Structure formats: structure tokens, C-alpha cells
Amino acid sequence: MTATVNRQVLLKSRPEGIPESRHFQIVESALPTLVGNRVLVRNLYLSVEPAMRGWVSAVKNYSDPVPVGGVMRSFAVARVEASRHPDYRVGDLVTGLFGWQDYAVVEAEAIRRKVTETDLPPSTALGVLGINGVTAHYGLLEIGQPRPGETVVVSTAAGAVGSCVGQIAKLKGCRAVGIAGGPQKTQLCTQSFGFDAAVDYKTPDFAQQLAAACGGGVDVYFDNTAGPVSDAVHEHLNIGARVVICGTASVASWDPPPQGPRIERHLLVKRARIEGFVIFDHPEHEDVALHDLAGWLRSGQLRYLEDVLDGIDQAPGAIAGLYRGDNLGKRLIRLTRE
Amino acid sequence: MTATVNRQVLLKSRPEGIPESRHFQIVESALPTLVGNRVLVRNLYLSVEPAMRGWVSAVKNYSDPVPVGGVMRSFAVARVEASRHPDYRVGDLVTGLFGWQDYAVVEAEAIRRKVTETDLPPSTALGVLGINGVTAHYGLLEIGQPRPGETVVVSTAAGAVGSCVGQIAKLKGCRAVGIAGGPQKTQLCTQSFGFDAAVDYKTPDFAQQLAAACGGGVDVYFDNTAGPVSDAVHEHLNIGARVVICGTASVASWDPPPQGPRIERHLLVKRARIEGFVIFDHPEHEDVALHDLAGWLRSGQLRYLEDVLDGIDQAPGAIAGLYRGDNLGKRLIRLTRE
Fold it and tell me: Strands, E, within A203-305: which ranges?
């Protein structure tokens, strides 16, 4: 089944802000040789993440920048095609940072996990059972620490992380309020994901709508955006509120950082806490999260939406589309019809 | 010993920003009558706190505003002059919110505590063994959670809270860096309070000096100021840093909040946390803190400085002086020569 050509998406030049098609190029390479005790994997789905903007940026960050001329870093779900490692056998389903390409020859350490939820679609290993679901689970439950009856607000609420945060909040007995862009996404929040309310940040009366949706104040804010959307939420923090910083999607450039209202007085008067996290610091949480998430998927208590683009040619423009909000749900590139 | 006149400092008008002399007036009243099971106390020392700006402000806050025409709210250390309550006897030393006045008749519930450290000067009950010391102890140890070898930075470092924070940090095996205004205060930090380094925020090369003093980055920042001083510290946060918001002394008005650089990206990349607290929420911590603080005082490991103004006539202008940085150490008003 192994083809002889490996199509790869390389980083052609380093973008200033959001990576666009022109920053990438697609090349055809020979398959790498299987040496040592490595594993040859064939990617089924490639992931497209907001975090990729950071991965290609030279600005100091939480991971080394992808080198110009290198294969674009990406999570993928893949089948083992050949293996010289005793832990992996042909046919195993695995995930890891296999890159935007058809095939990869990797060390066993590069494999994040063997996917054992074979009753569920393999693509879920990149979204709700991947980095997005685990991020939502860890950030909301470990940092946000919601208590039953509290109000949880999440931005980019219709997205892969946000939709999961809102649903977990509901499962934990909280009131969930989503913030998303446009009526289609706010409807998704309330109708598909079960949020109690959802507010469109693109409407002129966003601040009033948010105030109405958060009448009892905000106890946990899961922040995927930063910027003016978050400024509006900060106005409603309750005493003892927890703000979880997961992403900063609404800010195009942090060099220099944009100006905004200072928040120290809010934090003092409300005895509130703002905390950032990066899920890669918490590998020990993955098993706990996957156990919960897979269980909720099987019982039908957790829903997800995928935005699947067909073929590796779609990859170069896929990140910019994410920042424009073109997608509904977790954005993936499908490479095979398996 | 009881005089027949009670001199009281009343709030005459509500200030927009920092309270000045003109916002207060001094009146002479008759002593209130001792009724019910109340206690008559004679104030020895009155406290002057940065927090008083908030207490007289009508802006939503963590305590009700002092009413115009009312006695200015203040902590005081006092002797019981007469008592109808079984728990208090004539001669007992007590602290509480007795107000800027010579005498107060109070319910037992208004007494914060009976001062039992009679081997130490009574004025310490308002500073290092009062709200300032307990604030430093709780904020640094419970919220900042410093570990030995870490770098702790504190702003208004020569002040009543800041000097205590730096010394506790040293006692816990940390490196202590102070930020203060002017060479006299930075010298105090290093020479009297044992900070490893102190930086003058009023010098033009403050940013460079701070960077040099924090070569290994900042693990805990105990923030009494907010504003540009804090912006400079945020640049140096280490991974996993904790920022404790205790006060916002450098910002004259929060209505509307001033603009500053957004900090979400710092918090995300550094997995850092910013948290506000108000010590009145944590009465259970007082005994623990006083036990430590009094012990360190007796063993000579904890030093303090007092800025004592003589007579109640000094009170009306004393808050503004605090914000100008006129004082060296805890500012107090002495009412008797006891």
C-alpha cells in the first residue's frame, strides 16, 4: 500500500503575523528509509491548530520555531505501515507530531500515543480525543475549578476547544455561556453543544448582550482570545473568579504587545486569578482526560464537529482560514479515504 | 485619665483621587456614653494606610465607603478605659477599626484582637504585627508560594508591607529584589532590610537596572503598585511565575481604567498566574502569621521602621503624604505619650 512519493508541506518563509498559503510550498520527496528501530507511519488526517501561528513564529515562545525549509509541524493520526520497534505493529493507529506530509519515519518517542478507542472514528484522536479535548478538560477542571451552579464563559465557543469546554461545564453542573463570531456559531453553541446562552461578539451591542447573558456574574472565564472580547468579560468577574488563559486568537501581533485597560484593580477588588497554561506541560493528565472524554462520547453526552478539508493541497491556506473563522468545528486535512 | 472631649477627624467631602487635608475636618465632640455591654477605648496610635484611598471612594470596592460627615475609618491600637463586656478589662491593649479619633465606644465584635505581645511596642500591633505584617505573610506565602532559591520581587519595597515581604522571602531562602522610589529607600532595602538588591524606579535606566537585578528572572512578584513599574517586572517573569496583587499605589484613578500593555501572552507563554487578594477575607490566617512574625521580631530576624507623626492634627494630610512617598516605614499618628 505504500506509495513511492511523499508529499510534504514545507515552511517557505517566516510570516509576520498569521501564516498564509504563500508562506508554504508543497514538494514531492522520496520516502525516508526505515533504519534503526524506527517506525514508518502513513498519515490519515493532519491537524490544523491556532497554535501553529506560534510554532512558525521566531518570537520567543513555548516551543522552538519550525525552521524555514522544514516540514510544517503538525499533529496527525496515522497507521503504522512498517515497524522495527517492538511496541508498534503494522496496522496500529497512532498520533504524534508527524508533520504536514503523507509519510513519516519516526522514533518511538515521537509517537504521542497508540489510539485504543478503535470504536470511535480515528479523526477524533486529533480533536475531542486529542490535544483539543485534553486542553479543554485540563484547563477548565484543573485551572478553572468550576463548582456546580457557577457560570462558565468561554470564547471561541464553537471551536474545537471551546465547544468541549462548554459541554464539560454543563456536565459539571455549571451554567455555560459561549462567545462566538456570527449567528451560525452562536446557534451551534446553544443548539448543538447545549450552552445556556451564546453571544455574538461581532454585533454592535455585544457588551449589553454579554451583560444580559451573565446576569449573575462570571465565575470562570476560559479565554481563547484575549483583546476586547476579554475586556468585556473582565467587567463581570465575580469575587473569587478564575480566568484561564488558553489562547490569544484575537490579537494579530504581540510585538509590541497591544494596549488595553489595566486589570490589576479588577483582580484586587474581585480577589480574582488569571493563569496561563500550555497543555504540553501536563502529560500526566492525558489518561484522566481521555478516560472522561471517551466515556462521554460513547454515552452521547459529548458532541463534536469537524471541518474536514480534502487533500494536502488544502493545508497551506488552512491556518489563515481558521483565524478568519471560516471553519465550523475542528479543522482537519484528510489524506486518505480509509 | 479620661478627658471630656473627643477629637475626631471627619470626612468632609469625597475626593476624586488621593484624599488630601481639605477632604477632612477635625471636630471636638463629647465622649460617647458607655451603654449595653460595650467597651470604651482610648486610641494610642492611629494607622495611615494606602487602602484609605479606597475606603473614602464611592467607586465599587471591597468595603463600604466611609460616609461624608462620618469619622474616618482607621485601624488603631488602644487601651480599654472602661468596659461593660466580660472579655475586656480596663488596661487591656486592643486593636480594631476604632477610627481617627481619641476615643471610641465599641461593640466587642469591633475589636479585632487583644494584643498579647506585651513585650513588644504597642505600635507594632498596627504595622508588622498588624494588617501590614499579616498581609505580607499571607500574600507572599499563601499566594506567592515561594520556594528556596527563587527570586522574589516586591514593589514599594521600603514600605510597611514591602519591607516585610522582602524579609520573609529571605527567611524562606529566596533572593529578594526591592523596587522603591529614590536612593534613600533603596538603601533602606539593602542595608536595613537585607534585600539582595534594590532598584530605584525613578531613575531613567530603571528597566536596565531591574533586568540586571533579576538576571535569573522573576519567580514571585508581590505587586503593590501596578502601572509601568509592574509592566517592567512582567517582562522578566519565569515559567510558572506567580504575581500577587496586593495594591495599586501607582495608579491615581481607575475610573476609567488606564491603558497598559496587554499581558495575556506573557501569562500564556510563561504559564504564569496573577492573583488579587484582600486580607480581610482570611481572618483564619492571622494567628499563624502573628506567631511567625512575633517570633522573628523577638529573635531579631525581622526589622521594621515607623514614621510617627505627632498628634491628630497630622492625620488629614497623612494619606496624601503616603502617596507622595514622604514616609519612611509604617506611617502612624501618635495620640498619647504612653
Answer: 218-223, 237-245, 259-261, 273-276
